[in-house]
Amino acid sequence: MYILAIETTGAYASVALTDGDKILAHVEGNDRFSHLQNLMPQVQQVMADAGLPLGDVTAIATSVGPGSFTGIRIGVSSSRALAQILDILCVPVSSLEALAMRAADFAKEETIVCPMLDARRSQVYAGAYKLVDGFPQEVVEAAPYTLEEFMNAVDQFDNVLIMGDGADSYGEKISAFRDKAFEIAPEEIRYQHANTVAILGANKFNAKIGVPYEQLQPEYMRIPEAERKLKEEQAKKCQM
Fold first, then answer.
1. pTM higher than 0.85, yes or no?
2. Are 101 and 199 in contact (CB under 8 A)?
């Protein structure tokens, strides 16, 4: 069973291929937010590195968000196209769950892993997870929060590990909100990567969590800024 995984919700696109829980090949881009140009060549490189034709892929695991709106759209649309061509299923994977899994070999048993993605203006997409056998179990709902709301939500936990670019943007503010112990993950595991999307996707595929390509949907967690402004303008016109 070969699962092709696509991760485009962060600054760097990555692609991985797994056979169950074994990563056969993976590649990550070096250019920030160059997903549109690099994603398909990355897919080709991963398959070539694994020595397998694209037709051998069993399903496509896709990080559907939250994260970069543009990145999510590129990843979802590319996965849909590949799945349609290959006539295989897609497996939607939460970027927060997959990011939390990156701490599996780093976090202590009692640590609560908190992936936190910068949503701008002191807001984050975040959740809190306990890792059980390397897989995330949600203990604080994954959702959009103000930074203060999320730090209050995880205040019940004695030890937390902060993941994601939210740690970069709000590290000092986190210190101000947090009296208990916390740690920011080292850079080598701090950000999204297709490896954990692949492993989590394989696990979900085995659990029969797969959808036809047309049912793969992005998880933005909130509407894009341009759409929000358009709706505000339309509402104002209706009030005139």
1. yes
2. yes
